[in-house]
Amino acid sequence: MQTVITICDTCRFSEAEKLSPGGETGGALLAALVEEGAREGAEGSVEGGAVSVRRHSCLMGCERHCNVALSAPGKLTYVLGRFAPEAEAAAAILDFARQHAVSDSGQVPFRSWPQGVKGHFVARIPPLPAT
Ligand code: FES
Known about the structure:
Elements: E1 3-8, H1 26-40, E2 51-56, E3 68-71, E4 77-80, H2 87-102, E5 121-125
Parallel strand pairs: 1-2
Antiparallel strand pairs: 1-3, 3-4, 4-5
Helix pairs in contact: 1-2
């Protein structure tokens, strides 16, 4: 099952700065890096694990910068933030998302977390009950 990575494209560049030196939001920069990684099929620590990326303007976590959410039907949703909009963060997000995609529940064991997501978790939301 595919995991959807939702990236806030209006998030601040950093805790202190709204825009990058080039005038872009951190969210737009991070989204572009994650989109590029997803297109290139960067696998990270797992084989397979289908992911897609979408942008959304404001996830209402604006006190943090560079917020993302990972979700899939019937699985845990993870919300993460405070990323630097850099390639290393994008790779870690994709790696974690691919592990989420191959997990039946969406849960990713701590021992498998990419270093780049540690310290960035905001919330873990249980799936809605099946109807
Ligand atoms: S601007 Fe990104 S969460 Fe509000």
